[in-house]
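User: Okay, second chain of the day. Same drill as before: sequence in, structure tokens out.
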Amino acid sequence: MNFLIIGCGYVGRRAAESWLRWGHHVSALTRSAQNAAQLSEMGISPYVGDVLDPASLAALPAADVMLYAVGFDRTAGPTQRDIYVHGLDNVLNHAADRAERLIYLSSTSVYGQTDGTWVDESSPCRPARPNGQVCLEAETLLLQHEGAAARESRNILRLAGIYGPDRLLARVEALRSGEPLKGNPDAFLNLIYVDDIVRSIDACLERGGKDTLYLVCDDRPITRLEYYSELAKLSGAAAPRFVPGDTARHSLESLNKRCRNTRLRSELQVELAYPTITTGLPAALGLTSRDESP
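Assistant: Same drill. Structure tokens below.
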């Protein structure tokens, strides 16, 4: 099969590595020649361009599957809305018709619940924060698009907080330095290990329904206190300290909700390698071996 990745970053590269191991051909759009060289060394066919520059999308190849995994780089200049909404619109209008399948990576930030309630794919999306509002706008754009891409199979994967190798260094250093943490320690976090995102993408390709969305998270939401306490213990840091303050305000800031992965488990039949942080955090910190199986 031929895969085309738009946004070959932390998740996209791991998806590419998995597909390459299976003997598939992988192409990717990247904004810099330096990244293009790195991708080429991995065996990925790079195309230098930018989702904000429609002309640069003209050279993208046809593919069986397009994975849209564009992340937001705060240092790059454009706003999150520029990247997520205008960039997606450009790809839908100038490149999406070259792929038979399109998988779009979104975020559970589209949910605005703040009371610790459970949410799933049927829960209302009323995001209170700008990043969630932008993500929901992008999802709506994708599903309402009436161009050639609308005739193809599209899926949205709403990802919980991503963690894995090389993703925890700043958090660990903050804990080791004794830096106090902001926010409500009793608010829930929803997480997913990066390798399990790749498993979910592959399962979606095999069993996902047309124009269906899936919430991608692990089996057990945890409180921020539990998460940072476990991270501190594994990294040899002191127990975390939280800044006291207005619990209601901090609860809002941390989008206190619990995500349910029932559809992921039952419909896509995903077997998570890291169903909780009990196994996931040690693997992310290099204390155990990563599960490299697809």
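Confidence is low (pLDDT under 50) at residues 247-253.

User: Thanks, on to the next one.
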